[in-house]
Write a structure and sequence with these properties.
By secondary structure, the chain is mostly helical. The protein has two domains: about 60 residues, RNA polymerase subunit, RPB6/omega (Eukaryotic RPB6 RNA polymerase subunit); about 40 residues. It is about 70% helix and about 0% strand.
């Protein structure tokens, strides 16, 4: 079976294969839920229709961050989450130690 469009064209337009997969998945779910297709395709498969819609330019990805920005944002978020988790663990350990001290005094 011949592809109606090269996947590389989609990658060039969207940014990366993973963004394409997410966009196709979300649009296919919309189509399954009853959304009207934006293109006329012989297939009834929602995934195929979604791919054709993206290739035709009807589906766009909004708020897509460049890979460098995603990486920086993720590392900042990860660092904050890790810091908060460590603080929580320290607080729990302090509370446990205080509880043990009180039991020994009794």
């Amino acid at each position: 079976m011949e592809r109606p469009f090269p996947i590389e064209d989609l990658v060039d337009r969207i940014g990366n294969r993973y963004a394409i997969v997410v966009a196709v998945s979300k649009r296919a779910c919309q189509l399954k839920a009853g959304a009207k297709p934006c293109v006329a395709v012989d297939s009834k498969n929602p995934t195929t229709i979604a791919l054709h819609e993206i290739a035709a330019g009807y589906v766009h990805i909004e708020d897509a961050l460049p890979p460098e920005a995603e990486q920086e944002e993720a590392s900042d978020d990860d660092a904050q989450l890790l810091s908060a988790a460590i603080d929580d663990i320290d607080d729990e350990e302090d509370e446990e130690e205080d509880g043990e001290d009180e039991e020994k005094e009794d």
